[in-house]
Amino acid sequence: MRIVFTIALLILLTGASMLSGRVRLASFEIREEGRDFVVTWQAEVEEDVRQYELMRRTPNSNEQFVRIFEAPAQGANRQYGFRDSQVFKSGSDKLDYQLEAVYSNGVREVIRTESLNYTSTAVRRTWGSLKAMFQ
Predict the structure, then answer these.
(1) What predicted TM-score, i.e. pTM, was given to this entire model?
(2) Over the stretch 12-26, which tens digit does the pLDDT of each residue have?
(3) Residues 6 or more apart whose Cβ sits within 8 Å of residue 26
């Protein structure tokens, strides 16, 4: 009975390790450049990945993640990036990005989710105008 339990445990652990850890990020960065946000990432380990999908969620997207970019997998230690120039067209102040890996067998895995707060361009201009009025 103990041998059967040990074999079953080994099979379970082996199967779990095959399903997870096929992507390990070396870096994931979101930076603001002017009116845009630039999202970059690099995978340290990239096994059996068909493509990456970058998703974005704002209050204006009904709190749902919307796919904004797809990139075919190019292998480990390659730099991926996307310039998001559509953010400031909404009045939201919270922004979430989610990176997903799509494997060759069609399985999807969320690799990273990052949230940030920002002030939209319109509010920045208004705030600047207000400050100028009182100086």
Answers:
(1) 0.71
(2) 544 444 454 499 999
(3) 42, 43, 44, 77
Q: Count other Cβ atoms within 10 Å, centred on residue 54.
A: 21
Residues in the chain: 135
Tally the domains of the chain: 1
Residue 14 lies in a domain: no
Question: HEC states along 45-70?
Answer: EECCEEEEEEEEECHHHCCCCEEEEE
- Answer yes or no: is 13 within a domain: no
48-85 pLDDT tens trace: 999 999 999 987 788 899 999 999 999 999 999 999 98
Range of the domain at 65: 23-133
Q: Which of 70, 40, 41, 37 is nearest to 53 (CA)?
A: 70
* Residue 4 counted as domain residue: no
